[in-house]
Structures are given as structure tokens and as C-alpha cells.
TrEMBL record:
Keyword Lyase among record annotations: yes
Protein name from the UniProt record: Orotidine 5'-phosphate decarboxylase
Stored SUPFAM superfamilies: Ribulose-phoshate binding barrel
Taxonomic lineage of the native organism: Bacteria, Bacillati, Bacillota, Bacilli, Lactobacillales
E.C. designation(s): 4.1.1.23
Summary of the function given for this chain in its UniProt record: Catalyzes the decarboxylation of orotidine 5'-monophosphate (OMP) to uridine 5'-monophosphate (UMP).
Reactions catalysed, as given in the entry: orotidine 5'-phosphate + H(+) = UMP + CO2
Family: Belongs to the OMP decarboxylase family. Type 1 subfamily.
Keywords: Decarboxylase, Lyase, Pyrimidine biosynthesis
Pathway per the UniProt entry: Pyrimidine metabolism; UMP biosynthesis via de novo pathway; UMP from orotate: step 2/2
Active site: K62
GO MF terms, alphabetically ordered: orotidine-5'-phosphate decarboxylase activity
Pfam family, one: OMPdecase
Organism: Companilactobacillus mishanensis
Length: 229
């Protein structure tokens, strides 16, 4: 897999999204993330329309349910020709394996979410009652995903070296929480710049508002891509 900059779409309506995408030349090899909010609003027809335009799709639904439900859901999504799909690693080994089984007849990469980048050590200890340090918890979940067939994980760039050491260099680490130096951190706590993510070994970065809310989205995308490369 080439190491893409994945643009996280976070628009209020599909027209606004298409208007944003119109800034990009048709030959731009765009990789787009559709999260839960946009998917619930516009559904599969929106996914299909973006695939028909030639865009690669990271469907970030973070599935987390009993294994049989996840397997059957993944069997349906396997027909959609998306490039990436997420589940929660905390769903456990059987659920992760079931998701991979559901995607068996597709090229869709299965990525497991370790710890949300909005969660810090305080939330881990005091709210979720996890007795591990954040990095140890992330590494544990990454190994669980690796051992049960996932192609990679979603994690902070700061944890990529530990994850690669615990799994393997071919195990994908896709990194949200990316902010160029000039951008505000926003609602994420474990963040990194594109250059730092590259240095730490991330296989792809996910960037939303610094691109989608920029005055010139195309130039913002190019600037971040240059820093990433």
C-alpha cells in the first residue's frame, strides 16, 4: 500500500462535500474517510457515488457487536469495494476474526481501533478502569488484532514504534490525530505532525479539519502531503 494522506470528510451535507472535492483536479489520487456521522446521514449511496468518482474509501464505522452480527455486516460491506473498514479491537478476538472472515472475498483491509485519540491516561484509569498504562493497553489490543487476522490498527503516531515491534513491519498503522504545526489540537489529545508521524513509521495519516476547513483545501492538502512525504 502506498502511504496516503486520508482526508476525513466532516460535512453537514453531501453538496458541501462535493463542492469541497471539486477543488481537486480529477487526476488527484484522493483517499477519503467516511465516518459514522456522514454514513448515518447519507448511507451506502454516498459511498457508491464517491467510489464511482474514483476515490478510495476508508469506511470508519468502528463496528463493535457480537461476532455473528459483525461477520454478517462485513459480508455486506465486502461487496461495496471500499479499501478500509474499522472495528473496535476491544470487541475481542472472536469478533475481530469474524470481521475478517466476513471480508474474506474482498480486498478491504480490516483495521482495528485500539484507543480513541480523544482518550488520555486519565480517562483510561478513572472512567474505563483499565489498570494499564495507555501505551501498554494500545500494544495489547494491537497484538490481539494482529493475532486474529486484522491487517492493521488505528492508533496514535506516538504508539506506532511499539505496535510495529509487537506485531510486524507489514502490520498497518493508520494514524489520526494529525495536525500541522500551524493548526489547533481541537478535541484530540494524542496528536502528531505529519513529519513526526512519518518519522515514527505510520503507514497512513488521517487529516480532517486542517484540510476541509482551510480557505484553500487543495493547497492545504498539498502542503500536508509534502510534509508527510
Amino acid at each position: 500500500m502506498t502511504k496516503p494522506v486520508i482526508v476525513a470528510l466532516d460535512f453537514a451535507d453531501d453538496f458541501e462535500c462535493i463542492e469541497f472535492l471539486s477543488q481537486f483536479p480529477k487526476d488527484t489520487d484522493l483517499f477519503l474517510k467516511i465516518g459514522l456521522e456522514m454514513f448515518c446521514q447519507f448511507g451506502y449511496p454516498f459511498v457508491r457515488s464517491l467510489r464511482n468518482r474514483g476515490y478510495k474509501i476508508f469506511l470508519d464505522l468502528k463496528l463493535h457487536d457480537i461476532p455473528n452480527t459483525v461477520r454478517r455486516t462485513c459480508e455486506m460491506i465486502a461487496k461495496w469495494d471500499v479499501q478500509m473498514l474499522t472495528v473496535h479491537a476491544s470487541g475481542g478476538s472472536e469478533m475481530i476474526a469474524a470481521a475478517k472472515e466476513g471480508l474474506a472475498n474482498s480486498d478491504t483491509k480490516l483495521l482495528a481501533v485500539t484507543q480513541l485519540t480523544s482518550l488520555g491516561q486519565d480517562e483510561l484509569e478513572n472512567e474505563l478502569q483499565i489498570p494499564l498504562q495507555s501505551q501498554d493497553y494500545v500494544t495489547h489490543l494491537a497484538k490481539l488484532a494482529y493475532e486474529n487476522g486484522a491487517d492493521g490498527v488505528i492508533s496514535s503516531a506516538l504508539e506506532v514504534p511499539l505496535i510495529k515491534e509487537a506485531t510486524g513491519n507489514d502490520f498497518l498503522c493508520v494514524t489520526p490525530g494529525i495536525r500541522p504545526k500551524s493548526a489547533q489540537v481541537g478535541d484530540q489529545k494524542r496528536v502528531a505532525t505529519p513529519a513526526k508521524a512519518k518519522e515514527l513509521g505510520s503507514d497512513a495519516i488521517v487529516v480532517g479539519r486542517p484540510i476541509t476547513q482551510a480557505d484553500d483545501g487543495f493547497n492545504a492538502y498539498n502542503d500536508i502531503s509534502e510534509e508527510w512525504k
